[in-house]
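Batch job 17 of 40 flagged for manual review because the log was empty.
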Amino acid sequence: MTEIILVLFSVCLLVQILFHQLVFRKLLQKEDTPEKSSQTPSVSIIIAARNEDENLAKLIRALHDQDHPDLEVIIVNDRSTDNSETIIETSIRNKPHFKQIKIDHLPEGWTGKKHALSLGIQAAKNDILLFTDADCIPKSSQWASLMAGAFKETTAIVLGFSPYQKVAGFLNRFIQFETLLTGLQYLGLSAIGRPYMGVGRNWAIRRNSYDLDYLASMAHIVGGDDDLMINHIATKDNTINITLPSSQTISKPKHTWHEYLTQKIRHLSVGVHYHKKDKTLLGVFTLSFLFGWIFFFSLLVSAINPYFILAAFGLRSLSFYSIFARIGQKFGSPIIFWALPVLDLCYSIYYPVVSLRAISAKSIKWK
């Protein structure tokens, strides 16, 4: 039995190292910086907001400061019961390129965010649709120009990166780790021609590529307005990445484990709707990650030479941590190197629990 576990352990480590070197490392290559020109495409920024009165004024100021020659901002206020409507009206006064769409009633069969996005997209007038969330802030005044400027003639989708604000505490450190690891997966696979998802906090698509009928077909699913749409449309020929720190948005992190786990369960619950080939590829990576740790501890207490096991797992960890740390620096989201083994181990415990909860969840809400 020990010999079988040793073989499986070796396979897991090999799969992990191949992912690190062939997928993640691709993100270390130098990225083209879009040049600002009079040809920068016009942009419609669309935000679905529900009870976001504490975030909207700051977001609207940041969007008003965007250095872009032709943009409009559409804020869809989805049945907010707080002070959102007043704040939006006050903040966009004398800003003719800002627009509020108010929703008072949710049609049957729709979830709130998808319905809000559907109305925002139908109201948009520009060629490029750029999405972020109400609790996000662009990292720079060049955000909209960089995201729109990244489009080339054959590009339908631009995937961006969106980290969370750093605050003190282990929860935030874990959020930073998982966010960067998720970014390595979806941006890395996109970089090698296998795009499968993006995050709604920072992505863009050509208006004529957005499939409103598909959005309507998944209107009842909570979440997935971003990754399922990208999974539906993205190909190796029509999708590109931009990860420059100035092209990113930054989000407010959750402050309790309960809030964070609720958010992650919502995100993971839509993964079952991905294309089969994407689920298979992600499953191989995730299972090799998790079982690599399980087999590592199993073999340490077996009769196998522990020095060999430690050396083999150390090679896998060095491959992972060295690339992870360098990409964190490049993305402007550095992770303290000495914390990586702890975060790595915690992730291997956390992920199966959250995934099982996401699969079995019967009731998931947006807000």
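Reviewer: the log was empty due to a logging misconfiguration, but the result itself is present. The beta strands are 43-49, 71-78, 98-103, 128-131, 136-138, 157-159, 203-206, 239-241, 249-251. Unflagging and moving on to job 18.
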